[in-house]
Amino acid sequence: MQRQLTRRHILGMAALQTAAALGFTRIGLQSARAAEPAAVEFAPAVVVGSGYGGAVAALRLGRAGIRTLVLEMGRLWNTPGPDGKVFCSTLSPDRRSMWFRTRTEAPLATFLWLDVVNRDISPYPGVLDRVHFDAMSVYVGRGVGGGSLVNGGMAVTPRPDYFAEQFPAVDVDEMYGTYFPRARAMLGVNSVDPDWFESTEWYRFTRTSRQAAANAGLKTAFVPNVYDFGYMEKEAAGTAARSALAGEVIYGNNHGKRSLDKTYLAAALGTGNVTVHTQERVRSVSRAADGTYVLTADLVDDTGAVTGTRQYGCTYLFLAGGSLGTSELLVRARDTGTLPDLNAEVGAGWGPNGNTMLGRANHVWDTVGANQATMPVMGIDDWSNAGNPVFAEIAPLPMGFEHWVSLYLAITKNPERAAFTYDTAAGAVRLGWTAEQSAVSVGMARKLFDRINAANATIYRYDLFGTPSKVFADDFTYHPLGGCVLGRATDDYGRVKGYSRLYVTDGSLVPGNIGVNPFVTITALAERTMARVLAEDTAP
Ligand code: FAE
């Protein structure tokens, strides 16, 4: 699919490129023309975070002619390093890989129980973060584009019946008729050519998993993606630089991926009304006597040192720091008394989308291929099994050699939820998720994959998730959801209860589980919120 880029969109992309080349931490159309613009201390609208929810808010505000400042704690990923590449590869990570770490923390800790996956690195504001809580750690993207920089690009629209179950107050027809199509079009969603899929070596691993599922009587379904499959075919043909076919994904893609900096954010900057400040981490939010919001942000340099703080004022405040970022800001604001009227639902309703990762060992004749594309295109869809609803993404494991491993990210209908609480002594939030709650996801994933193993006379892999042997990786998630759930902590459109002109537009609105990979849902809900807010709240 060829996407049409408007002149303003191209201007926005030019602004991103110039800002990167000159090392700016403030990005707007002005920086594309001349020098860095003067500091914006007051903006009519401020957006915290530049992932899906933040990018939609910025574009819609900018198009409505509202001057908007986006504050992002990560960096702009647009400048090539000494190797000529913006991002480092998954197989050979360097400081660009992870957010202020001395060693990488990849989801697959080991291979054959050997510590061969992770590498020592020097601390730097790298693109992938793993945030540790007591019994759960959460992977998130850091930078202009948030999770879109590091994710697998799977662009899945949830089942309407489950969406309606999770969002009883939302008009399902309007979502599926207006906001999901709008989100997919803006994100540049496309699908792999089925003929190419059937013939290419790069998706042998998927076809092998599909056959194993079919042998157990299970259905599989193609899923769309935001990676440009036309580009991927050129990579395979050797006529374009390789990215998805060169093992790139969780530490960023140098080509092919339609991340938000190439879609929503480029269009937002192209309006001329949006400015993005990078490496500024919002620490607190309060309200001034005149009803405007006051934000304090720490300026973080490349070593992680806080080199100063800056204060911003705004009339309209959009929180889009993701499930973790927004929940942290609001729980802290409520419990330290800077926004005391926030209700008890703030921080509640959190879940990891039932995520559990696992590997199966295939027979030697069921090869998965040394060459694997990093963008998943298929899932095992057993969600309609009322006794054990699971949707399992068939995930790649591109190690450059044949290893016979089939890898999966199972999304289970785990009903467990947890809450964030504020730890005054630490000045940080805690997440109350427990190992017992993860065990519910494991039980559901195990039921499905026991069936697949039984039908194929295969076994699990025991060597992938550290020592002692762990079959199910149940202690991390890619899909943090909730903490500020729609209709509970906010009204039915993301307006935070207790305060006017304060909004949430990100994954914290989703009540812990959505049954599929979540960014299309987050984007479509943000579109719905912005349409309503611009029609009702910002009119003069
Ligand atoms: P998000 O994209 O996380 O953006 C939040 C932004 O706010 C980030 O850039 C933060 O750095 C920034 N921020 C946070 N706190 C602050 C603060 N205090 N001050 C300033 N900035 C702040 O939020 N989903 C799919 O649908 N399909 C996939 O294939 C898929 N694969 C994934 C693979 C990986 C490895 C990971 C980590 C995630 C994956 N996801 C996938 C999940 C998806 O990326 C995630 O649901 C969305 O990115 C969440 O969007 P939000 O707008 O909520």
Automatic annotation (TrEMBL):
Pfam families per record: GMC_oxred_C, GMC_oxred_C_1st, GMC_oxred_N
GO biological process, one term: cholesterol metabolic process
UniProt keyword Isomerase, yes or no: yes
Residue ranges of every copy of the Glucose-methanol-choline oxidoreductase N-terminal domain listed in the record: 141-164
Keywords annotated in UniProt: Cholesterol metabolism, FAD, Flavoprotein, Isomerase, Lipid metabolism, Oxidoreductase, Steroid metabolism, Sterol metabolism
Named cofactor requirement(s): FAD
Pathways per UniProt: Steroid metabolism; cholesterol degradation
PROSITE patterns in the record: GMC_OXRED_1 (PS00623), TAT (PS51318)
Enzyme Commission number(s) from the entry: 1.1.3.6, 5.3.3.1
One Gene Ontology term of the molecular function aspect: steroid Delta-isomerase activity
Family named by the database record: Belongs to the GMC oxidoreductase family.
Record protein name field: Cholesterol oxidase
Organism for this UniProt entry: Streptomyces naganishii JCM 4654
